[in-house]
Amino acid sequence: MTDELDFYAVDPATSARERRDIRALLGRCGLDYEEHIQVFVVCRDAGRLVACAGLESNIVKCCAIDPDLRGGSLSLTLLSEVVHLAYERGHSHLFLYTRPENVSFFQGCGFYALAEVPGYVTLMENTPVGIRAYCDRLRAQRPRGLRPDARIGGVVINANPFTLGHQYLVKLAAAQCDWLHLFVVSEDVSFVSYRDRFALVEQGVRGIERLTLHHGSQYMVSRATFPDYFFKEKGVVGDCCTAIDLLLFRNHIAPALGITHRFVGTEPFCETTRKYNADMKFWLQGAGSTAPAVTVIEEARTRSGGTPISASEVRRLLRSRDLDRIRALVPAPTFELLREKYLSKILPFAPDPLGHGGEPDAPARRAVAAGI
Amino acid sequence: MKIVKEALAGTLESSDLLVKVSPGSGTGLEVVISSEVMQQFGLQIDRVVRDTLARLGVTAGLVVVEDKGALDCAIQARVQTAVMRGAEAQTIDWSALS
User: Fold this and answer.
1) Per the CATH hierarchy, to which homologous superfamily does domain A1-92 belong?
2) How large is the ipTM?
3) Residue B16 covered by a domain
4) HEC secondary structure over A69-95
5) Can you say how many angstroms the Cα of residue A1 is from the centroid of all Cα atoms in its chain?
6) CA of A77 vs chain B CAs: smallest distance (Å)
7) Is CB count within 10 Å lower at the N or C end of chain B?
8) Which residues of A touch B13 (CB under 8 A)?
9) What residue ranges of chain A are covered by domains with CATH 3.40.630.30?
10) d(CA A127, CA B27)
11) Is B35 helix (H, G, I), strand (E, B) or coil?
C-alpha cells in the first residue's frame, strides 16, 4: 500500500468506469452490486480501486475492502468518509446490514446491533441511543391502570389507502383486547402520501375505545427493516427480510408497550402473504428470540360482494376509474380524498400496480403483500 | 450555544474521535461515550467532553463520542467543532476554550 490513498465520492450512474471497478471489487469480496445506490465513497491506491461503501438514502450498502489491504486502518477511514458523506446529504441516522461475524468490526466504527438472524445477517444503526430512545418514547405512551395480565394488541397498517377492510380489522382487534396500539407505516414511498394515510386512519378509527394511534418509525416496515438485498445466496433473502422486521417488533417494540398479540388480515389468494404470516408466527411466537412471545392472530378479511377488500384492489379500481365500486370498499373520507386528489395522479396503465413513480418501492410492496 | 441540528466532527482513525451532536429528544444533556480505552480513560474522556460542552454553554442535546484513543486536546477540538456546526454558529468565540 502506498501513502497515496485517494478517497472521493462518485455517482455510479454517471461513470461507467467507476461502476465497472466497483462491481469488480464487490465481486472479489463476494458481494453483489446494488442498483439503487445513489452515491459511493471509493478509495484508489495508485489508481487501483481498493475500497468502496455505498449509500442508498440512509442505508450503508456494498461496503468492501480489497482482501490484500485488510487489517490496516483503511476500513476506519472508509467508514469515516461514508458517515461524513451521509451527513452532508442530510442523513444522520444510518443503518447497515452485515453478516453476524462482521458485527464487531462495525461496532468499532460506531454502529450498534439492532437485530440478528443467527448465521445470516445483522441490522445495525449508527447510534447507541436510537432504538432505546424510541422505545422510551413508546413506553411513555403506555396507558395507565391496565392489569398486569392485560391483553394488549398491536396492528401495523400501511393503509394505501385506508379501506373498510382496515377499519374492520382494527375494530375486531380492539374488541378482543384491553388496549390496542395501531401503527401506520411512515415510510413515504406509497401511492397515497403518509400525511394523507395517517389522517384517514385517524378519522377512520375515531370513536374506537382503548386505542392508541402511533406514527410508524424507521424500526417498523421501513426501507431499513425491509432490505431487498443481502448476499449472493438469494434463497436467504426472502426469509431474512421479514425476520429482521419481526425481531425488532418482538424484542423492542412489543416489550416497550407490553404488546401480547399482533393482529393481521389474511389474504386468501396470495402465496407471498401466506409466507409472511407463517414467518410472523415463526419469529414472533417461536424460539428464535428470548423476548416474550407475541401471539399472532390472523383475521379473515371482510368482504364486499364476495371479494375480500384490499387496498391494492382499490388502487386497481382507481386506475380503471371505477369510482362506484371503490365507494363500496372504503370509508367516505377515503373516497372523497381519492376522488379529489388521487384520481388525477394515478397512471391508467402503470406497470407497477402501486402506481409509484419509478422509485424503488420495496417496503410498500412487501407491506401490501403482508396484508398490511 | 444551543444545538439546533445534527452535526458531525472528527474521524474514526487511530488517536482521533468522531463526535456526533444532535438537539436530542429530552430537555437535558445526554453524553454517550464509546472508547477503545474505556476501561482506563472512560471517566476522564467523559469529564473532558462535559467540561468542553459547559464552556461552550451547551446545556441540552445528545452528544455521542466514538473515541479511538484521542488526547484531551483532540477531544476538546472535535467537540468544539461539532457543537459549532450543530449550533450553526456564525461568529466564533475563540477565547471560550483557551
Assistant:
1) Gcn5-related N-acetyltransferase (GNAT) (3.40.630.30)
2) 0.88
3) yes
4) HCCCCHHHHHHHHHHHHHHHCCCCCCE
5) 40
6) 6
7) C
8) 73, 76-77, 80
9) 1-92
10) 19
11) strand
Residue B43, in any domain of the structure: yes
Sign of the four-CA dihedral B50, B54, B56, B60: positive
pLDDT tens string A125-163: 999 999 999 999 999 999 988 888 999 999 998 888 898
Are the beta carbons of B32 and B64 closer than 8 angstroms? yes
C-alpha cell at A158: 400501511
C-alpha cell at A247: 425481531
Q: How many CB pairs under 8 A join A and B?
A: 48
CB A311 within 8 A of CB A158: yes
CA B98 – CA A332 distance, rounded (Å): 66
Query: What does each C-alpha distance from A62 to A25, A89, A277 come to in angstroms?
Result: 10, 18, 30
Q: What domain range includes position B63?
A: 7-90
- Within A286-347, residue ranges assigned H as helices are 311-319, 323-327, 332-337
d(CA A32, CA A17): 17
- Using the predicted structure, report yes or no on whether residue A359 has a pLDDT greater than 70: no
Q: B8-59: per-residue pLDDT in tens?
A: 999 999 999 999 999 987 779 999 999 989 999 999 999 999 999 999 999 9
CATH class of the region A145-369: alpha beta
CB A217 within 8 A of CB A134: yes
Question: Quick one: which of A255, A228, A195, A272 has its CA closest to A363?
Answer: A228
Work out the average pLDDT over A339-349. Answer: 76
Please list the residue range(s) of chain A that carry CATH number 3.40.50.620: 145-369
User: What span, in angstroms and rounded, lies between the C-alpha atoms of A142 and A160?
Assistant: 27
CB contact at 8 A, B9 and B81? yes
> Which cell numbers hold the place of A205?
378509527
Å from A224 to nearest chain B CA?
A: 20
More confident residue, A229 or A30: A30
